[in-house]
């Protein structure tokens, strides 16, 4: 971003991308957040849209740059365009900070309409990438998110709401769990996203009914007593259900 | 649009709104389309985003202007931003046509990212409004849509896909049916949107289970033999379910 001048010849004017990147770890649904040294608030990772790039491509770029991962599950979920989407505290020290020429300063003073994408990534494979050394980038439990800039809290809430709704429409877990997992681990993922307890037998019945699980001839190790079976997703069936949708809600 | 100059001081640059307006009539799901005399293709009704207006407000304006109705059910469903979203056949006679000064011509040559909204309206109450006398505006069965400009067909398909998915998440009908209706009429609406036959008893069971219907002490008139009961939506319960979502799919 430092090398290409921020103006409307290089970037789509007044348009940005913000990514809500979810990861699952320690029974927490975490979200990847950024803090720059010129601002006391945290923000979602984001970027601008190069004039010669599709919006979806620009979103993939943000995601790859920030997680070091390719081929991530990524979905556009909503576009935010309140007239209040201007930085009220914009000060030109930001320009110095980013080594941006002063005459490009007006770029930052316009209203930005932002397209929200959410991503599901394997927490253990993602390596959060700083843009420079002044920046902090961290996984934070979605229940303990600090104050965010602008309407980023609203964007995050909407992403979470969308994810909860989509649990009724599609399978989830492939991008959030390790390759082998137990049914209780999968249930815990659903419970964490939905923020409620699910009945064990009901969950087992419903998840089995979808037909995307493959039982492995392997048990979870490091478990003292009765070791639970390990499962993996049947990738072909998973993709098929992802495409056609579930026929029932939870 | 003719009175305010099309430039980035008045409108958000490179951004537009397109509305997929659905109405239900004669057992058809119809969509409101527009044809101008300078183009042989049809298009979705749309507009630009005034610099001082939220994107959602701009969408409401398009909808009110085109249907003559207020308080319509309207939802943003996706944003389209391929780099191909430029009019390849743009010719400057359009400027003459809209009485737009030549120096504003470059407005039309940039890539437009467009935010898609879909609306559900009561077909009998909507009065399609032309922008001028050269324009045709018509309800067209969604199964017989002619060739559309740019990616408008893709936008329409995505809106329909979203509507079908949302049938699993929320009640529908309040905005598409007259105040009093029979269960077979409601079923027909669902069948038309989903484009498939539903089992009569299953549908009755499921729709009753949601708890949004109020049976009226009235039968449908003009029916030769056994007249079916009329129903209406319990508005409070309908709104409640709309807010919290259905707990089951179809």
Automatic annotation (TrEMBL), chains A, B:
Pfam families: NUDIX (PF00293), WHD_NrtR (PF21906). This is NUDIX domain-containing protein. PROSITE patterns: NUDIX. The lineage of its organism: Bacteria, Pseudomonadati, Bacteroidota, Flavobacteriia, Flavobacteriales. Residues 14-162 form the Nudix hydrolase domain. It comes from the Bacteria.
């Amino acid at each position: 971003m430092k090398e290409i001048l921020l103006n409307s010849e290089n970037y789509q004017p007044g348009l940005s991308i913000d990514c809500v990147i979810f990861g699952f770890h320690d029974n927490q649904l975490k979200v990847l957040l950024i803090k720059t040294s010129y601002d006391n608030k945290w923000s979602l990772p984001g970027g601008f849209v190069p004039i010669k790039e599709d919006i979806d491509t620009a979103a993939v770029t943000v995601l790859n740059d920030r997680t070091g991962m390719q081929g991530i599950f990524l979905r556009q979920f909503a576009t935010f365009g309140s007239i209040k989407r201007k930085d009220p505290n914009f000060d030109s020290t930001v320009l110095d900070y980013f080594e941006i020429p002063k005459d490009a300063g007006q770029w930052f003073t316009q209203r930005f309409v932002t397209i929200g994408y959410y991503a599901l990534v394997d927490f253990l494979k993602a390596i959060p990438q700083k843009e420079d050394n002044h920046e902090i980038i961290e996984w934070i439990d979605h229940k303990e998110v600090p104050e965010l800039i602008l309407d980023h809290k609203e964007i995050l809430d909407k992403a979470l709401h969308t994810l909860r709704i989509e649990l009724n429409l599609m399978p989830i877990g492939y991008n959030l769990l390790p390759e082998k997992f137990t049914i209780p681990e999968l249930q815990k993922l659903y419970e964490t996203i939905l923020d409620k307890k699910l009945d064990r037998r009901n969950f087992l019945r419903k998840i089995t009914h979808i037909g995307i699980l493959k039982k492995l001839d392997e048990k979870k190790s490091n478990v003292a007593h009765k070791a639970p079976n390990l499962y993996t997703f049947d990738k072909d069936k998973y993709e098929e259900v992802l495409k056609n949708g579930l026929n029932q809600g939870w």
